[in-house]
Amino acid sequence: MIRTVVVDVDDTLCLTEAACFELENEALARIGRDPMSRAAHVATWGRPLHEAMPMRSPGLDLAAYLAVHHTLLREYAAAGRVDVVPQANLRTIDELNAAGREVMLLTSRTEAEMEHLTAPGHVLDGRLAAVYHAGNTRFGKPDPRAFDELLAETGRDPRECLYVGDSPTDAQAATGAGLRFVACMQSGLREPADFAPHPVDAFIDAFHDLAGAVTRLEDATPAPLR
């Protein structure tokens, strides 16, 4: 049985690349930097922000940038301009929970970048069994050890767990740790061929297809020998 469904945040739980491109360019403008190109943003999408921004804006004062970015992220989130979880995705989480599967998040974001999503009263409050981020994991994706804390704390066999994400680095981390992997193609930024180096158990067009995909994968799994 697939007991634990682990979900990526960016362009999986909610579509964020376009919103983050706007946010990050506004943060650059506030510290007097020229805007990055959309191509540069997409090419480095999926990397932790502190790794991506020096590539997106060479010569950047990273500490100054991150301070402004954090303020803007809170403003954008409060205004509903980023990290909006669609109702269809919330219903999918509810469907997974109703089927007896615990739902968790695992992201490369920092704790500060997640604080609005984990705040009491948020729409995700009460729907998630746990949230893993750069603040409570020792390793980040694509390192398979990104799942070390989750597996240790839940006591799950990796084959009882499934990770859903949007990027090849998600697939690399999950399958390297022994989890099943579902690729969410909703952002339109990836093609199935992008995942070719890594095993993918299923492709879904949108997050709201996830519950059905999990059931089909479970039904297709041979029963263990006795």
TrEMBL record:
Coiled coil: none annotated. One of its GO terms (molecular function) is hydrolase activity. Its EC number is 3.-.-.-. It holds the Pfam family Hydrolase. InterPro entries: HAD-like_hydrolase_sf, HAD-like_sf, HAD-SF_hydro_IA, HAD_sf, PGP-like_dom2. Keywords: Hydrolase. Signal peptide: none annotated. This is HAD family hydrolase.
